[in-house]
Each structure stands twice: as C-alpha cells, then as structure tokens.
Amino acid sequence: MRGFLLNRLSQSLALLVIVSIIGFIILSLIPGGPLSQYARDPSMTQQDMERLAEQLGLNRPLWIQYFDWVWRLVQGDWGRSFRDGTSVLTVIGRHIFATLLLMGTSTVIAIAIGTWIGIRGATHRYSMFDYLATIGAMVALSIPTFWFGLVGIYVFSLQLGWVPAGNMYTIGDGSVLNYLHHLILPSVVLSLVHVAVWSRYMRTATLDAISQDFVKTARAKGLSERRILLKHVVGNALLPMITLAGVQLPSILTGALVTETVFTWPGMGRLFLDSLGYSDYPVVMGLLIFSAILVILGNLIADIVVAIVDPRIRLA
Amino acid sequence: MTALAISTAPSRWWHSRAVIRFISHRLALLGLAMITLLTLACVLGPYLLPYDSLHIDLRARFAPPMTGNHYLGTDPLGRDLAARLLMAGRISLLVGFSAMLLSIVIGTLVGVVAGYRGGWIGAVLMRTVDGFLSFPSIFLVLALAAALRPSPIMITVIIAVTKWMEVARIVEAEVRSLREREFVQAGRMLGLSGTHIMFREILPNAMGPIIVAASLTVARAILLEAYISFLGFGIQPPLPSWGNMLNGAQKYLASAPWLAIIPGAAITIAVTSFNFIGDGLRDALDVRDDHI
Fold first, then answer.
1. Which of A296, B42, B105, B250 could be stapled to B89 by a disulfide with Cβ–Cβ 3.0 to 4.6 Å?
2. Distance of CA B43 to the CA centre of its chain
3. pLDDT of B255 above 90
4. pTM of the predicted model, to two decimals?
C-alpha cells in the first residue's frame, strides 16, 4: 500500500507541475499580462507601466517569473480580485459550497439512475429496454446542457410552475426545504449527461462481471439469481465505477459551469463567467488552476479508495 | 522503394466488410442521412428562403413559427429565424469540422511520436496530455477565448487545442501495440527512417481508431462551440452560430420559447448524428475502446 501511495502521489505532483506550466502559458497570453488592469487606465503613462513592470519583476527571465508565481501559489497568495481587492482564495471559498452542493446532488442522481439502467440493460440484454437505453444514452450525450436547462425551465417553471427558474434560495427563506426546491431542476439537468455515461459503463461492467467464474460458482452453489446479482455481480461491477467518478470530474465541472449560468446558481462557474466579463484575470486564473487541482485531487482520492477496497490493486 | 510492398502486411482487409457492416448499422445510416440533409440545407437553404438572414423587419418582431413566410418565426429584431438557423449552421458545422481536423492532426502527431519513440519523449508528451485533461475543457476554452480575440478561426484553434488529447491517447496506445510487429521490424531492418516507419508504415494501420475518434470529435467540437458561443465568448454577432442564437434567448423564454427551442434542437440533431455515425464506424471498423 505504501509503495502504491507514494507512486500515485508523485504522479499527482507531476501532474500539478504540468498544470501550472499550462496555466502560466495562458497567463502570459492575456493581453497586458499581469498588468492588464492598469493597461486600461488612461492616466497610466508608458513610464508608469515600465516602472510597475520593474517593481513586479516582469522584466526578469520567464522561468524565474514562473517559479516566483508557483511559489506564491504554494504559499496561498493567489493574488487579489481586480473588482474589490479581496484575495482570490477568499472569493473562491465563498462560491465553492454552491458548486459542490450542485455537483454532489447531481452525481448521486446520476449514479442512482445510471446504475439501475445499466444493470437492467445488462440483465435484459438486447431487449426493448436495452435498445432504448442505448439510443437514449447517445441522444442524452448530444443534448447541450444549457439547452436542456432552458427547456426544463420553460416546461417545469414557466408552464407548470413546479420549481423555481433560478437562484439557490428565496431571499429571506434559508430553510433546507427551500434549498432543495431550488436544487431539483439544476441537479437533474446537470445529471443527464452523466446518467448516460454511467449507464453505459455500468452495463459493460455488469456484463463483464456476469461472465466471470465466481458467478458460475455461485450459480452452481444454487444461490438465487437475485442474490447473485446483488451480492456478486453488482459489487464487482461498481468497483471500476469509483475510478469513473474521478475521471468524470472535469466534465461535471464543465456541466456545472453551464448549469450555474442558466439557473443563476451562485457557484464557481458563474463566478468564472462574471470574472471573465469584468476581465478579472486573477480570479479567472485562480479558478482555472483551482478546477484542475480539484480534478487531480478527485482522481487521486478515487484511486486510493479503489486501492483500499480492492487488494489486487494495492498489492500489484 | 520495393520495400513498400511489404509495408501493407496486415492488409486492409476491413475495407469491404467494414462498408457492409456500416450500412447494416441502422442508426449510423440515419445519422449519415441527417447530417447530409442538414449540410445540404445549410449550404443551399439560404438561397431558397424568401428572407435574408440579416434582413431586419421591426414590424415582424417575435413572430411565432409558421407566420406567413417566416417558417420558424422571427427573432427580437424581426430577422427570419429559418434563414439565421441555416447561416448559423454553416458556421457551427464548419467550426466543428475544422476543429476536428486540427485536433486529429495534433493528436495523431503527438500520439504517433509518443507511441513509437517511447522513452522520455513519450513520457513528457503523454504527461502533457494528462495535464491538459486535468482542466475542465470549458474553463480552459473560456480563459483562452477571453485572452485571445475570438474570431471564428481563433475559436476553431482554441477548441482544437482542448480536444486533441483523447485522439493522442488512442493513437499512442495503438502505435505502441504495433511498434514491435514484424512489418515494422522489417521496415527497420531495411533501413527506413523513423519518420517513414511512423507515418507510412504504422499510421495507416492505426487509421480505424482515428476515424472513429474523428466522428466523435466533430460531435464534441460542435457542442463546445455551442457552449462558449451561448456564454458569449465564442462566435460573435452579427455572425450567427447555433450557440450564440441561444445567447439572448433565455430573456424571452416565457414570451418567445421558439427562439431557444429551435437552435438547440438543431445542435442536438447534428451532434446526435455524428455520435450515431461514430458508433456505426466503431462497429464497422471493429474498434474496441472503453468510451461510449
């Protein structure tokens, strides 16, 4: 286990280094670079700009600037928002709960429905259900999340009036029920794509597990089909799904950004877009790096969980 | 170069059988038919419709579908939605297709070199792939689109820059498995250059997975363009794209829902078609991968 952990940790660390290099390249692509805030100020003369560049060390070799930038990231100095001067990490901290709530809920929905569809598809292979689930998954993967959200708002908020059309809660009403009421539509919208992905993977994983020898043994022992399915097949099929949950993280974050925009959900995605609109590059860069760290961390945790559950991996 | 006679050792046996399998894949045929129709409509349609996509008619604002000659209604400026939808389709399909070509080129180059060379070059290239995959694609695309000027060409490049990694992974795995095969060793023994072996001997044998990846990448590129244009950082008006047609539509969702529903349906149809085609190609070319 220790060897596995060390190996996996060093991989994540290497990935962080590469991510920071990509981030630094993008940062230097921004017009005006770190000085873009001042570049738009008409009272700044050329001399002022040069002095500022000198002060901030922007005329040093690129690689020194890179290490300096990374060192500040490591120390927790992610810069300050152009908009109100709050530190970038504080701004991100204010929005992370909303995003994690949305992502968590929709992941639970996606796993629950996707697992069910996948298992049923595998046990009733080539049935009408399986056929429709296959086509349905491919169509679900093709629907733009924002459009599904708009159609959802049109049908369930504007026409039927069942759920609110946006925001995380009604102002002045902080009850859990109120949050849940606001959460239903966006989390279902966000889960659609992932239901499709989960159900396809679960179907394959279940089919793989069914054909294994231990299932034959269980049948030979005379266990009921139901017991075999629940205890022997599903348990083994769910194992690779933990890894999948980690792999799916970037796409959930992408979906969350779009969903948050459509539903005026006060999370990181909306913060990212608002900051783009204001050319608030410190926050934009901060969120870009932060989202990548979240993904790397998520994958690391998923792999460690799988290793804990499955001794074959940590001992290999 | 008589050596080339050897080079096709595992011959392209799939050619005829693959075609038959593709044709017997009903969904793939449906996808192909829908894409052909959609492309034809986008190319020819604007010449046949009674209205120009830029013709503003403020007396005809917010006309619902099937009003007079406005088959799909009009937008807040009274422009004909059908004409705009087809012009937007030209842009969206073109951007999606070009972004696919570019990302296939980048991905194949990286994948072939990493897979054939291996060693530290391969390690550096594949870790770079992992690094790019760690970013949620929309964050990366939006940051780049905001930093650079969002012209259609730049949007295409940006989408390609964030979509080449999966191709690179597929090609790398394929090339790595082909690297030690007899026909490659024969090529090496004949003194062929590394470049020749990589691109003339190995690459043709790895075409199956690349073709499948290509059709799925078109689907993803169209979706990504729609996402960033919807968010206002992609194709800029007055140039219409399916994504930016939806950009203002949320405001009018209660009064003019067709403004949101119709362009979104067009995106869904196009993307579904490419996914169906990709699925059919995967069956036809016997490509096994763990993606959908």
1. B42
2. 18
3. no
4. 0.87
Give the lowest-confidence range in A117-121, B48-52, B243-247.
B48-52
Report the C-alpha gap between B135 and B224 in whole angstroms: 14
Paired tokens of B119 = 């060693």
Q: Which residues in chain A have their CB less than 8 angstroms from residue B249's CB?
A: 150
Q: Record the tokens describing residue B76, joined without a space.
A: 């807040």
ipTM: 0.86
CB within 8 Å of chain A, chain B residues 260-289 = 260-261, 264, 267-268, 271-272, 275-276, 279
- Complete DSSP assignment for B223-287: HHHHHHHHTTSSSPTTS--HHHHTTTGGGGTTT-THHHHHHHHHHHHHHHHHHHHHHHHHHHTT-
- Judging contacts by C-beta atoms under 8 Å, the chain A residues touching residue B243 are 144
Residue of A57, A59, A276 lying closest to B148 (CA atoms): A276
Q: How far apart are the first and last CA of chain B?
A: 41
Whether the Cβ atoms of residue B6 and residue B187 lie closer than 8 Å to each other = yes
Lowest mean pLDDT segment, chosen from A162-166, A220-224, B230-234: A162-166
Residue A196 in contact with partner chain B when CB distance is under 8 A: yes
Lowest mean pLDDT among A167-181, A284-298, A299-313: A167-181
Task: Report the chain B residue with the minimal C-alpha distance to residue A143.
Answer: B268
Tokens standing for A243? 């890894």
Distance from CA of A133 to the nearest CA of B (A): 13
- Of A158, A250, A276, which is closest to B135 when you measure between CB atoms? A250
Question: Average pLDDT of chain A?
Answer: 86
> Min CA distance, A203 vs chain B (Å)?
11
pLDDT in tens, A141-161: 999 999 999 999 999 888 887
Q: Which residue has the tokens 């005829």?
A: B16
